[in-house]
Amino acid sequence: MLKIENLHAEIDGKQILKGLSLAVNAGEIHAIMGPNGAGKSTLGYVLAGKPGYEVTDGTLNFLNFDLRDMAPHARAAAGLFLGFQYPVEIPGVSNLQFLREALNAQRKGRGEPPLSGAEFLKIARAQAAALGLDPEMLKRPVNVGFSGGEKKRAEMVQMGIIDPKFAILDETDSGLDIDALRAVGAGINTIMRKPDRAVLLITHYQRLLDYVRPDFVHVLADGRIVRSGGPELALELEREGYKDIAA
C-alpha cells in the first residue's frame, strides 16, 4: 500500500529525514517510535504534503501513485489521512459544516457525487455515537472550547466520516486521560483495522499500543529507521528508553 525508499527531506534547508525506507501493506498497523527530534512528525508531514517540507531524494509510492507529484488535496482524495498531535481550532466554522465540505471535496476529487445534507448528517451522527462524542458538539465551532480528549474524539469522528485507506496518526495519544485513550484506541480499531486499510501510528509511548496492537514497531533516530520488530519492541523501549537505540 505504501512504499518509501531512501527518503531524504528537509525544512528551511535543514535535513531531517536521511535515507528512510519503510513498507506498509494493506491490513497492517505500524508504530513509529523514537526520541524527540528524530523526524517522526516530519515523516507524517512529508507523506501528507505539508508545505515547507521538501523531499530532496527518494521515492514515495502510495497505491501506485507517486506522492511527490501530488498536491495535498489530491493525496487526501487518494485515501491519505493525517491526524494531528494538536488539532487546530477553527472559530466560526461548525464541525458539521467543516466535515461535510471536507467529505464532499474528497468525493469530488474521486469523481463521486456530493452527499446531501440529510445523507451526511446520518453518517456524522452514527460516527459520533460510535466514538462517544455528544452529537450536539458537532454543531459547535471546530475544536473551539474542546478539551484535549474531546478534540481527539472529534478527530476520530472526522476519520470515520472521511473513511481513509491509510491513516497517519501523529501522537494521537498526546494529552489524553485513560478514558479518552481507551475511546480513541477503540475508534482507531473500529475504523481502520480492516483488510483494505492501514495505519502509521507515531507515538512516544507504549500506552496507546495497549489498545491498538501494532503488527510492527519501528524506531526512528536521526532521520532513519534503525530498528524494527514486533509489539515487544515497544515494551523494551518503555523499559529501557532510547539511549542505546542505535546499537
From TrEMBL:
Which keywords are on file for this protein? ATP-binding, Nucleotide-binding
Q: Looking at the keywords, is ATP-binding present?
A: yes
Q: Does the keyword Zinc-finger apply?
A: no
> What domain of life does the native source organism fall in?
Bacteria
Q: Where is the ABC transporter domain?
A: 2-247
Q: Which InterPro entries match?
A: ABC_transporter-like_ATP-bd, FeS-cluster_ATPase_SufC, P-loop_NTPase
- What family is this? Belongs to the ABC transporter superfamily. Ycf16 family.
Please state what the protein is called.
Answer: Fe-S cluster assembly ATPase SufC
Question: What is the organism field in this record?
Answer: Sphingomonas natans
Q: Which gene encodes it?
A: sufC
